[in-house]
TrEMBL record:
Protein's job: Involved in targeting and insertion of nascent membrane proteins into the cytoplasmic membrane. Acts as a receptor for the complex formed by the signal recognition particle (SRP) and the ribosome-nascent chain (RNC).
Gene Ontology process terms (BP): SRP-dependent cotranslational protein targeting to membrane
Stored Gene3D superfamilies: P-loop containing nucleotide triphosphate hydrolases (3.40.50.300), Signal recognition particle SRP54, nucleotide-binding domain (1.20.120.140)
Protein's UniProt keywords contain Cell division: no
Species in which this protein is naturally found: Parvicella tangerina
Subunit note: Part of the signal recognition particle protein translocation system, which is composed of SRP and FtsY.
Keyword flag Iron: no
This protein's encoding gene: ftsY
A GO cellular component entry from the record: cytoplasm
Annotated InterPro entries: AAA+_ATPase (IPR003593), P-loop_NTPase (IPR027417), Signal_recog_particl_SRP54_hlx (IPR013822), SR_rcpt_FtsY (IPR004390), SRP/SRP_N (IPR036225), SRP54_GTPase_dom (IPR000897), SRP54_N_sf (IPR042101)
GO molecular function term, any single one: GTPase activity
Catalytic reactions of this protein: GTP + H2O = GDP + phosphate + H(+)
Entry protein name: Signal recognition particle receptor FtsY
Pfam families membership: SRP54, SRP54_N
Localization in the cell: Cell membrane; Cytoplasm
Amino acid sequence: MSWKSFFTREKKEDLDQGLEKTKKNFFGKIASSIAGKSKVDDEVLDDLEEILVSSDVSVETTLKIIDRIEERVARDKYVSTKELNGILKEEITALLEESNNEDAVDFEIPKVENGPFVLMVVGVNGVGKTTTIGKLAHQFKKKGLKVVLGASDTFRAAAVDQLKIWAERVDVPIVQQGMGADPASVAFDTLQSAKAQGADVVIVDTAGRLHNKINLMNELTKIKNVMKKVVPDAPHDVMLVLDGSTGQNAIEQAKQFTKATEVTSMALTKLDGTAKGGVVIGICDQFKIPVKYIGVGEGIEHLQVFNKTEFVDSLFKGSSLE
């Protein structure tokens, strides 16, 4: 299926609105910095570098973008500030194309032999992990898939309760043992139950603790090993959920989690409430781990499949540096 066929006008409008604060912050600063200037020179590039970093694109990624623009300026001898908008868009698009993001699919999952597709979700508390799981369950169910949730975040009572609320809202079964239960035991029971029910997808929530990476690493490893006893290749995807509104802190969390466990995909939440949407660019570039989903609003339909082309188009839509 082509992404064009499922990226509807409504989804595009949601994405445009979700990135509005980032766009105003980012292009407002650039427009101010080049006011009265006609040529992209060292001063303009210095200002652009500062703006990219302050927009949470990250230092490493910013330097790559600036280097690329400098090369073009040197090659073309003269680049007007009117051309800066297009050049910046082209270089950010190229950077995202080089990252490890797969082509967008409409909440589809690969077929798995000997059991359901198992998605293990990791991330610190407060990033929107449980909400993301609920919204994913909703989208998978809309596709006609049978979904089972596993409440393996037994460290906080609220985490289990929140997941139960989402399970009821979306009307999918949940396996839980309550606060203080062994997370691996819950995961084991979840996969056994899902297999018995002929489920297509299992989403397992896990505790979001980073203050002791060794404990976190051991716990996640134990959960993985136990799940393999039921579904040999599980988990098929380990998704890290990050709060986009925290900017550089999200990048730091990604560094910590990728050291503690294997992460195979990411989801970025809360982009609608922040001017720090540039963090998506830095995360794609630095980690080379597919960003699969982004949250652009509070509604149940506001979790979107991440499409880099549509993301950049929305970011630059209506912007003018002239």
